[in-house]
C-alpha cells in the first residue's frame, strides 16, 4: 500500500469484521467504532483500536454521526474510511466530508453516489449508456393523476417507487386504476419517513421477473471489469433472503449481454471501486433498475466463484493501484472465469411463522458448521450473545460452494441441518425448505417465489429437547423439586413508600384544564402538544392484566398522593371500571365507589379515566338505557373525567347511549375501536384499514372527543401501527389514544412506530407492573423516545421512585401473579386479551 496504512471501518457486525480481516491480511492497522449498545460487540475486538461513537445518541443514530466519526478518524490518525454497506455507505455528505478532510473514502466518488443514490438519475445514466430500462416517468410524478395517466398509456400493473428508495421501502404495486391514489399516497408517506424525501416516480411493473445483479470493479486507471452475476430472486418484500452465483437459469448469451451492459454503464461514468448493477430479467429480455454504489451483503459468493477478494480489491483501488497490477491480482476481463457455483443463506433471528418478526434474547446454544466449500461470515453469532432489537437481525451469512449447483445445494442443506442456535428464533427451518424446494434447485423461480410458495412455511416446530433437559436439571438443582413450596418471608412494613415533604405543592395538570375549558379545551390542548402524552394504567389495567385485579384499595391509596406529586404530566390515570367492580365485590369485599372518591381527593390534578363497556357498563350483560345514563352521571360526579367507551364486537349501536350520557355529563368521550387481526394481512378481508377508518368516521360523527385504538390482545404490530395511525390521522380530526398489551414483546416497538405516525396519547404502566400481558413500561418508552422530537414529558427519576413501591407491593400478590415468563408471540395466533388471560387462570384455580 502506498497511501493507506490505517483504516477506520464505519460500520458494525459482520461487514465490519469482514473489512477488518481484509485489512489485517494486508498489514493495514485497523480502527473500529461501536455504539453504547454495542459495547460487547464482537467487531470491536477484531480491530487494533476501538472508539465509542455517538455517545448519548440512539443506537442507529450513533453509526450515522458523521461529525463524531470524522473526529475519531482524526484522533486515530487514519488514512482511509471503509463504510461497509448500509449506514453511511451511500451517503454523499459523508463521502464529501472525507474528501474535505483529506481522508480516503473506500468507495466510489461522490459524483457516483449522487447519480446512483437517486433512482431517477441512475435511470438517466442508463439511457445515456443505451441500456434497456423499464418504461417509466421521466422524473418524479407530482400527483396521483400523473400516475393514472401513465397507467392509461402503458397499462397495468405498474410500480410507484421512492426516488431515494431502497430495500423495498417507498414502493407500491398498482394493479389497476382503483389502486392509484392509495399507492401514490402510501409510497410518498413511506418514502418521507424512511428517506426524508417524499418524491416518487412511476414505471411499468415487470411481472414475476428474476432479479439479477452484476458485480463491478473499476479503478482510477480506467479499468472496468465484471465478476459475473448473482441471482437474487429469492426475496421477501424486496429484501434478499437467498442468493446464488452464478444464475443457473439463464443462457450464456443472456449472461454475456447483461454483464456487457453493466460494464458499458460503468465505463460511461468512469466508475470507481466496487459496485453492483441490478437488472430485472423476463425471458431473454432484461431491464436496468438501479446501481448499488458499494459492496453488497452477498459479495461473498462472487468471491467464492471467481477467487477474487472484493474487499481487498476495494482497498487497493482506493490506494490508487491498477486492479491488474500483479500485487492486486485481478486478471483481464477475458481471463476471469466462473469456477463452480455458490449459495448464500442469511441466517437471521426472525420468526418465519410470525411474519418474520425479529426475535430478541440471549443465545444459550450456538453450534456452527463447516467443511470443504463452506464459508461463515458472522457478526455477533456466538453462545452467550444478547440479540437486541436495535440493529439488523442478521446473525451469520452461510455460504457453500460446489463444482455444480447441485453440489452447493447439498452442502447448504447439510450445513443448515448441522447449525444449532437456541435461545432465539431463527429462520433456519424456512431456509432449509427454500434450498430443498424443486423449483429452487431447478432455477425455476422468480421474485414472487416466497409469496407464491406456501409450503415453504410448513416445517416442524423446534423441540429443543437437550436444552430443555438441561434447564430442568439446573432448575431442580437451584430451586428444589417441583411441588415443594418454598417461599421467602415477606415483611409488609418494608414497602418503599415515597416520602413527599408535607409542604410540597401539587402541580396543576389536565384535570384543571378540563374543569376550566371542558372537553373541547382538552382536545385543543392535546392537539397543541408536540410530545406524546402518557396515560398510566397501573391503578387499573396493569394490575388486572398481571394480578387478576386483586390489588386492594389500601395498597393503591398509599401511592396515590406520591403519584399526584411525582407524575403531574400524565394525560390521565386509568384507575377504574370493567373488572374493578367484579373483583371488588366478589373477592376484595370493597366498595369500588369508595375507591374512586377517595382517589379523587388524593389526586386532584390529573384526569381519571375509566373503561366503560358500552351497553354493558361495567357488567357482563346489556343494561337498560336509563341505567347506563345514571351510572355515567354518578361516575362523573364521583371523579371520572375520561370515559373510554367500547364494544368488544365494535357494535356502534351499543355505544351510542354511553357516548350521549358522557357528553351530557360534560366529560371527555373517548370512543374506542377494538383492534383485531392484522391490517397488513391481505387474507383478512373484513378487518382491514378501511374498516377501521369507516368506524372512526362514524364515532366522530356520534360525538367522540378522542378516538381510542383498543388493542386489548396486543395484536397491533409495529408496521400496522404506523399505517393505522397514519391513515386515521388523515381520516378524522380528533386526537388518537393507543392502548396495547405487551404480550408479544413488541409493545415499545409498536408505540415507537405509532409515535412516528403521530399518535397523541399511549397507555403505559409503571415498569414493575408492565410488560407481558400488561402495558409497555412507562420509563422504558421514555428512554426509547429519548432525544426525539416527541419524547414524553416525564421525570424518569420520579417515575422510578414510584416504581420501587410497585416492585415491593407486587411480591404480596404472588399467588395471583400470572405474568408470562417471556414474550409470547403466540398471541398473534390465539389472540387472547391480556386481562382475560390472567383472570381466566384465577377463575380456573378457584373452580379447582
From TrEMBL:
One GO-annotated biological process of the protein: gluconeogenesis
Stretch forming the signal peptide: none
Domain Biotin carboxylation: 3-455
Documented EC number(s): 6.4.1.1
CDD domains: DRE_TIM_PC_TC_5S
Annotated ranges, domain Pyruvate carboxyltransferase: 532-800
InterPro entries, per the entry: Aldolase_TIM (IPR013785), ATP-grasp (IPR011761), BC-like_N (IPR005481), Biotin_carboxylation_dom (IPR011764), Biotin_COase_C (IPR005482), CPAse_ATP-bd (IPR005479), PCB-like (IPR055268), PreATP-grasp_dom_sf (IPR016185)
Keyword Magnesium: no
Highest taxon of source: Bacteria
Residue ranges of every copy of the ATP-grasp domain listed in the record: 125-319
GO molecular-function terms, A-Z: ATP binding; metal ion binding; pyruvate carboxylase activity
Keywords from the named record: ATP-binding, Biotin, Ligase, Nucleotide-binding, Pyruvate
Record-level GO cellular component terms: cytoplasm
Record protein name field: Pyruvate carboxylase
Origin organism lineage: Bacteria, Bacillati, Bacillota, Bacilli, Bacillales
Amino acid at each position: 500500500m502506498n497511501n493507506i496504512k490505517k483504516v477506520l471501518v464505519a460500520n458494525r457486525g459482520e461487514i465490519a469484521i469482514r473489512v477488518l480481516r481484509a485489512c489485517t491480511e494486508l498489514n493495514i492497522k485497523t480502527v473500529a467504532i461501536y455504539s453504547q449498545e454495542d459495547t460487547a460487540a464482537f467487531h470491536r475486538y477484531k480491530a487494533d483500536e476501538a472508539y465509542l461513537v455517538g455517545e448519548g445518541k440512539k443506537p442507529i443514530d450513533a453509526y450515522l454521526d458523521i461529525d463524531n466519526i470524522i473526529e475519531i478518524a482524526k484522533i486515530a490518525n487514519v488514512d482511509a474510511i471503509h463504510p461497509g454497506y448500509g449506514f453511511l455507505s451511500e451517503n454523499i455528505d459523508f463521502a464529501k466530508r472525507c474528501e474535505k478532510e483529506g481522508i480516503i473514502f473506500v468507495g466510489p466518488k461522490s459524483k457516483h453516489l449522487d447519480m446512483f443514490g437517486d433512482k431517477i438519475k441512475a435511470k438517466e445514466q442508463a439511457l445515456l449508456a443505451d441500456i434497456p430500462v423499464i418504461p417509466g416517468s421521466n422524473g418524479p410524478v407530482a400527483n396521483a393523476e400523473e400516475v393514472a395517466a401513465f397507467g392509461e398509456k402503458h397499462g397495468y400493473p405498474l410500480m410507484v417507487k421512492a426516488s431515494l428508495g431502497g430495500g423495498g421501502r417507498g414502493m407500491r404495486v398498482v394493479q389497476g386504476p382503483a389502486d392509484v391514489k392509495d399507492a401514490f399516497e402510501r409510497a410518498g408517506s413511506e418514502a418521507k419517513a424512511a428517506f426524508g424525501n417524499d418524491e416518487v416516480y412511476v414505471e411499468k411493473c415487470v411481472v414475476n421477473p428474476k432479479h439479477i445483479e452484476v458485480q463491478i470493479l473499476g479503478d482510477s486507471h480506467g479499468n472496468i471489469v465484471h465478476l459475473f452475476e448473482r441471482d437474487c430472486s429469492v426475496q421477501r418484500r424486496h429484501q434478499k433472503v437467498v442468493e446464488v452465483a452464478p444464475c443457473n437459469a439463464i443462457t450464456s448469451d443472456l449472461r454475456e449481454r447483461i454483464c456487457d451492459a453493466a460494464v458499458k454503464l460503468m465505463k460511461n461514468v468512469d466508475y470507481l471501486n466496487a459496485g453492483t448493477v441490478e437488472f430485472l430479467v423476463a425471458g431473454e429480455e432484461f431491464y436496468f433498475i438501479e446501481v448499488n454504489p458499494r459492496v453488497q451483503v452477498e459479495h461473498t459468493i462472487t468471491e467464492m466463484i471467481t477467487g477474487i477478494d472484493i474487499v481487498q480489491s476495494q482497498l487497493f483501488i482506493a490506494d490508487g493501484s491498477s486492479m491488474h497490477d500483479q500485487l492486486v491480482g485481478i486478471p483481464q476481463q477475458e481471463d476471469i472465469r466462473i469456477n463452480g457455483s455458490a449459495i448464500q443463506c442469511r441466517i437471521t433471528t426472525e420468526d418465519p411463522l410470525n411474519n418474520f418478526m425479529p426475535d430478541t434474547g440471549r443465545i444459550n446454544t450456538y453450534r456452527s458448521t463447516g467443511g470443504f466449500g463452506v464459508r461463515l461470515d458472522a457478526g455477533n453469532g456466538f453462545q452467550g450473545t444478547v440479540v437486541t432489537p436495535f440493529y439488523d437481525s442478521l446473525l451469520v451469512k452461510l455460504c457453500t460452494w460446489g463444482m455444480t449447483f447441485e453440489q452447493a445445494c447439498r452442502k447448504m442443506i447439510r450445513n443448515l441441518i448441522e447449525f444449532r442456535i437456541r435461545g432465539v428464533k431463527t429462520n433456519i427451518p424456512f431456509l432449509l425448505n427454500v434450498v430443498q424446494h424443486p423449483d429452487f434447485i431447478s432455477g425455476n423461480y422468480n421474485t414472487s417465489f416466497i409469496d407464491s410458495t406456501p409450503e415453504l412455511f410448513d416445517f416442524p416446530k423446534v423441540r429443543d429437547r437437550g436444552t430443555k433437559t438441561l434447564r430442568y436439571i439446573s432448575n431442580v438443582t437451584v430451586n428444589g423439586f417441583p411441588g415443594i413450596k418454598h417461599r421467602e418471608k415477606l415483611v409488609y412494613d418494608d414497602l418503599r413508600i415515597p416520602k413527599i415533604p408535607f409542604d410540597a405543592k401539587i402541580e396543576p395538570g389536565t384535570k384543571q384544564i378540563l374543569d376550566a375549558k371542558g372537553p373541547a379545551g382538552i382536545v385543543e390542548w392535546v392537539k397543541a402538544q408536540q410530545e406524546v402524552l402518557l396515560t398510566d394504567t397501573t391503578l387499573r389495567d396493569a394490575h388486572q392484566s398481571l394480578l387478576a385485579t386483586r390489588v386492594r384499595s389500601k395498597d393503591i391509596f398509599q401511592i396515590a398522593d406520591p403519584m399526584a406529586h411525582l407524575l403531574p404530566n400524565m394525560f390521565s390515570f386509568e384507575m377504574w371500571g370493567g373488572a374493578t367492580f367484579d373483583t371488588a365485590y366478589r373477592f376484595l369485599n370493597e366498595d369500588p365507589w369508595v375507591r374512586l372518591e377517595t382517589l379523587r381527593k388524593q389526586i386532584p390534578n390529573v384526569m381519571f379515566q375509566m373503561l366503560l363497556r358500552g351497553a354493558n357498563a361495567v357488567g357482563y350483560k346489556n343494561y337498560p338505557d336509563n341505567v347506563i345514563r345514571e351510572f355515567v352521571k354518578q361516575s362523573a360526579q364521583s371523579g371520572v373525567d375520561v370515559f373510554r367507551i367500547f364494544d368488544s364486537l365494535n357494535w356502534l349501536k351499543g355505544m351510542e347511549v354511553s357516548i350521549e350520557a358522557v357528553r351530557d355529563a360534560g366529560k371527555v368521550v373517548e370512543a374506542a375501536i377494538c383492534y383485531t387481526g392484522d391490517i397488513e394481512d391481505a387474507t383478512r378481508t373484513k378487518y382491514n384499514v378501511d374498516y377501521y377508518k369507516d368506524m372512526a368516521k362514524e364515532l366522530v360523527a356520534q360525538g367522540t372527543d378522542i378516538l381510542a385504538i383498543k388493542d386489548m390482545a396486543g395484536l397491533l404490530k409495529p408496521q400496522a401501527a404506523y399505517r393505522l395511525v397514519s391513515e386515521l390521522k388523515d381520516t378524522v380530526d380528533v386526537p388518537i389514544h393507543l392502548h396495547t398489551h405487551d404480550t408479544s414483546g413488541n409493545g415499545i416497538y409498536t408505540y415507537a412506530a405509532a409515535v412516528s405516525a403521530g399518535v397523541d396519547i399511549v397507555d403505559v404502566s409503571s415498569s414493575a407492573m408492565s410488560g407481558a400481558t400488561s402495558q409497555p413500561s412507562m420509563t422504558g418508552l421514555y428512554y426509547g423516545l429519548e432525544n426525539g422530537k416527541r419524547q414524553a414529558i416525564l421525570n424518569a427519576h420520579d417515575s422510578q421512585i414510584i416504581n420501587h413501591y410497585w416492585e415491593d407491593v407486587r411480591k404480596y400478590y404472588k399467588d395471583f401473579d400470572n405474568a408470562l415468563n417471556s414474550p409470547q408471540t403466540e398471541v398473534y395466533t390465539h389472540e387472547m386479551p391480556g386481562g382475560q388471560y390472567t383472570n381466566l387462570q384465577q377463575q380456573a384455580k378457584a373452580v379447582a
